[in-house]
């Protein structure tokens, strides 16, 4: 049995196992499953309401950047250097936006799904980048500011190195896995 067929088999069963397994585990541990779900849904709704203006703003900004031709120019200008490392320029917007904002990268991912289709390799790469990187600059600005840390010292270089490694590995692993 090949690696790909094993992964396809796991993919078939993972969602049903999670959908059934989590509530069953909650019941075994005597957690009020339904009430916990409702509380989580309320929190999720308030989070969406809080993030909506940022999502609209970043979608508008991305649309304007694309409509102006600047994104096409940037992607074509960097096409050759990115090809040297096997990085498709179509994924470049996610690599730029993800370290800056979580909400913006969700909006960008939604835009990429609309542009390339949900089964596109570019969308798979962008989704993997989204899941494997951090909003480094947001974390440094908000969380470090919230606890009054003024000297970030090694946090910024470490975050940028981690994001860069995650972005490159996301692209290379998806290429290896889906080609």
Structural description of this entry:
The chain has 179 residues and is mainly α. It has one domain (52-178). The protein has 8 helices and no strands. The chain has helices at 3-28, 33-67, 70-84, 92-97, 102-116, 121-132, 136-146, 155-178. Helix 2 (33-67) crosses helix 5 and helix 6 packs antiparallel against helix 8 (155-178). The longest helix is centred in the N-terminal third of the chain and has 35 residues, at 33-67. The radius of gyration is 19 Å and the shape is globular. The mean pLDDT is 87.
Please give the radius of gyration in angstroms: 19 Å
Mean pLDDT equals 87
Biggest sheet statistics:
none
Terminal-residue CA separation: 18 Å
Briefly note the structural class of the backbone: mainly alpha
Q: Strand portion, in percent?
A: under 5%
Number of extended strands: 0
Alpha plus pi helix count: 8
- How many domains make up the coordinates? 1
Please give a quick description of this structure.
With 179 residues, the chain is mainly α. The protein is built from eight helices and no strands.
Properties at a glance:
mainly alpha; 8 helices; single chain
